[in-house]
Amino acid sequence: MQKTVKQKMMALAGDQAVAYAVKQSDVDVVAAYPITPQTIIVEKFSEYVANGEVETEFVCVESEHSAMTASLAASVTGARTFTATASAGLALMHEMLFVTSGCRAPVVMAIANRALSAPLNIHGDHSDSMAQRDSGWIQLYAENAQEAYDSIIQAFRIGENLNVLLPVMVGLDGFTLSHTLENVEVLPDETVKEFVGVRKFPDVLTHNGKTAPFRLDPANPMTMGPIALQNYYFEFKRQQEEAMEHAVNVIQQVNSEYAKISGRSYGNGLIENYRLEDAEVAAVCLGSTAGTMKTVVDGLRQNGVKAGLLRLRTFRPLPVEEIRSAVANVKALAVMDKCISFGGNGGPVFNAFRHLLYEEANHPHIVNYIYGLGGRDTSPSDLRSIYETLQELLQTGHVEKPIRYLGLRS
Amino acid sequence: MTNKNKNWKEIAPAGVCSKSSLDFLTGDWKTYTPVRDPEKCTRCVICALFCPDGAINWYPEKNDIEINQDFCKGCGICANECPTNAIVMKIEQESK
């Protein structure tokens, strides 16, 4: 096995870790607008620009809608492009998110996940990015600042892969990760630069009958994202679905390639199974909750409970086959949503899991826990209670209330 | 949908055009067609200047204009602007 490179330990909050990763990833353009709890990413990066530490073109825009528009425009010319936002900022980008994925522009965006108004709340939950799940973006969720750093570097490789060509958002929990100082191991600049490489372009046939690299270039004029009506629109959407299917493999390849240089991997890149092989009762969660959950699982295991955890790192594309085989032997499963889908009969992660397990002959009992909305703290004892409920469920063999609320005053 | 349309595996990503805009004959969008009376027309070329699609061309050697029906979308601005009412808009079938 290849030897991992020597790394430097730094004290970085999640936002700073993201900015540091962008600094090392040879990014050509950053167009962003500040919003809590993402602000530090843009603030820190603008320092790098001001100090001449990067050659990136930094575009100060007047809104998030413009931030995404400028990012898209830069990306289609062939520039490696990054932006960051959260909450209302992401909501304001909504329209342009679809244009970016539709133009197959591999923009990378960090989301410091935050609740949406009203009432106004600046703290962490997944309402913002979950509301964009059908925008055609790949979605990764980080467990800690280290993973936020690693995922940003990986995101450029994933999105820019010629079989993918999709934008990627990397979620890090607002405040819990964005503003919490952690020990983060960083790779040397040249190692990251080599890992991300230089952006490549597929050849496409243009209107003048010539084949040219897929980017806007005055030497090879082409039109991207023009009108496509009843006769062609559908075909372009099917191509995007195909790209998502390719991303399932590419995310795994990038995860293992990255492990070779850094010594760090996150499950198979799609899901991370924690003590799941022989687990009877298991939970599913995204992001920083998994850190607390692993401690809870360890405690339960010491008491002889066959508890496990599946951390979903990649929500889009949903790793259907990987999840099915990971939970094949689980008898009771709790799926946690840090997000509420009003009138949706459970949260988005729960609905995804229940539907993908529908055809499985011996699928587990499955319950949904809505939790942590607006940054409400989720304690180890809260999480332990989930496993106790799952054990009771094994006794009764019947799920009475499939959708439950964790940490809500009743 | 005709069979000559390509399937999703055959087309470039992001709607990259495989044909020039000269190959997309937008003239078939129209309901009304401009019909010119050459007797009334004074060749003032106001219609050509106003045409938003550049579908009216002026040929100095012939001292005449020509309406390009391949790209005329039938908006009627030419008929509206013509000082001598030399252009009238007609339903396409009737104009033939």
Pick out its properties.
heterodimer, A: 410 residues, Rossmann fold, seven-stranded mixed β-sheet, six-stranded mixed β-sheet, 38% helix, 20% strand, globular, B: 96 residues, alpha+beta, Alpha-Beta Plaits, two-stranded antiparallel sheet, 4 strands, 15% helix, elongated
Report the CATH superfamily of the largest domain in chain A.
Thiamin diphosphate (ThDP)-binding fold, Pyr/PP domains
List unreliable stretches of 5+ residues of chain B.
none
How would you sum up the global shape of chain A? Answer: globular
CATH class annotation of the largest domain in chain A:
Alpha Beta
Quaternary structure classification:
heterodimer
Number of domains of chain A: 2
Q: For the report, how would you describe the main beta sheet of chain B?
A: 2 strands, antiparallel
Short note summarizing the structure:
The complex is a heterodimer of chains A (410) and B (96). Chain A is α/β, with parallel strands linked by helices and 410 residues long.
Architecture overview:
- The complex is a heterodimer of chains A (410) and B (96).
- Chain A is α/β, with parallel strands linked by helices and 410 residues long.
- Chain A folds into two domains: 8-201 and 231-262, 3-Layer(aba) Sandwich (Rossmann fold), CATH 3.40.50.970; 271-406, Rossmann fold, CATH 3.40.50.
- Chain A has helices at residues 14-24, 39-50, 64-76, 87-102, 127-130, 145-160, 189-196, 233-262, 289-302, 320-326, 348-356, 380-396; strands spanning 8-13, 29-32, 57-60, 81-85, 108-113, 138-141, 168-173, 181-186, 203-205, 211-213, 271-274, 281-285, 307-312, 314-316, 332-337, 365-371, 403-406.
- In chain A, the strands form four sheets. Chain A has a seven-stranded mixed beta sheet with strand order 3-2-4-5-7-6-14, with helices on both faces. In chain A, strands 11-13-12-15-16-17 form a six-stranded mixed beta sheet, sandwiched between helices. Chain A has a two-stranded antiparallel ribbon with strand order 1-8.
- In chain A, strand 16, helix 12 (380-396) and strand 17 (403-406) form a beta-alpha-beta unit.
- With 96 residues, chain B is of the alpha+beta class.
- Chain B has one domain (27-95): Alpha-Beta Plaits.
- Chain B has three helices and four strands.
- In chain B, strands 1-4 form a two-stranded antiparallel sheet. A two-stranded antiparallel ribbon of chain B has the order 2-3.
- Chain B is elongated.
- The mean pLDDT of chain B is 91.
- Chain A binds chain B through residues 102-104, 165, 202, 204-208, 214, 222-226, 228, 230-232, 234-236, 238-239, 242, and chain B through 1, 5-8, 11-21, 23.
